[in-house]
Write a structure and sequence with these properties.
Elements lengths: L6 H17 L13 H16 L18 H13 L7 H14 L2 H12 L5 E4 L15 E5 L2 E8 L10 E7 L10 E7 L5 E7 L5 E13 L3 E2 L8
Parallel strand pairs: 1-4
Antiparallel strand pairs: 2-3, 3-7, 4-5, 5-8, 6-7
């Protein structure tokens, strides 16, 4: 088995390395355990420049706004970003939401959500942990009740990283309280500007501010459901 890069992969790595050396000088590199608004905004600016070159989601299909290459090029990007200690932003969208939508979303959802992620235009946060639920995620309590063409959500999420920078939250909610705990959960994407969603700041020691995210009679259109109802765990 040949583990060497192809000529095109090596060319991409060299071009990317030169770009990062120019755009991310040593004094702007991330410091482990320290975070700030200035650092975050710098990371966003680098991400947009990468996106303008088709590199931010280089391994995604072109029809989804990506660079049309493959997992090796995506790994090269991640590796070089780590070597250069680039402040990372957009990790939920790029690492979780985009791939999940391309696998389980319908075409309308893919067209609406995926290209803006690849362009570095939007930020996502993740609504999994709750005040009474941490590592045992299947015991989550946030309810989503179907009402015609909408779902009504009530409950809260805890330790929502990036919430104050995010445009959308990618969340799990219980849609069938009578089912065994893994089988009554559904997956949604919600615009954080939706009425009834509110954020309570949770400052972290490294300078980051997460949130407790409250849902008070939040009405989401059924189009926000990703995949099938009650199949969110899977």
């Amino acid at each position: 088995m040949n583990f060497e890069f192809t000529a095109d992969q090596q060319k991409f790595r060299d071009e990317l390395r030169s770009f990062l050396e120019l755009e991310v000088p040593a004094e702007r590199q991330a410091v482990f355990g320290v975070d700030s608004e200035e650092q975050y905004q710098f990371g966003r600016s680098v991400a947009r420049k990468l996106a303008a070159r088709g590199w931010l989601a280089v391994g995604w299909p072109e029809e989804s706004g990506g660079g049309g290459r493959g997992p090796i090029e995506q790994a090269i990007l991640n590796e070089e970003m780590g070597y250069r200690r680039v402040p990372r932003t957009g990790s939920i969208g790029l690492g979780i939401v985009g791939p999940a939508l391309m696998k389980f979303g319908n075409q309308e959802q893919i067209q609406k959500h995926v290209p803006p992620i690849a362009r570095g235009e939007v930020e996502y946060c993740q609504g999994f942990s709750e005040p009474n639920v941490g590592s045992d995620l299947a015991s989550l309590e946030l309810r989503a009740v179907r009402d015609g063409d909408e779902y009504e959500l009530n409950g809260s999420k805890m330790f929502t990283s990036y919430a104050f920078h995010a445009d959308y939250i990618y969340l799990l909610a219980r849609t069938d309280p009578e089912a065994s705990k893994h089988r009554g959960i559904s997956l949604f994407i919600a615009d954080l500007k939706t009425p009834g969603i509110s954020l309570r700041p949770l400052p972290y020691i490294n300078g980051t501010v997460a949130a407790q995210t409250h849902f008070d009679e939040v009405r989401l259109p059924a189009s926000c459901l990703i995949g099938e109802e009650n199949q969110g765990w899977y």
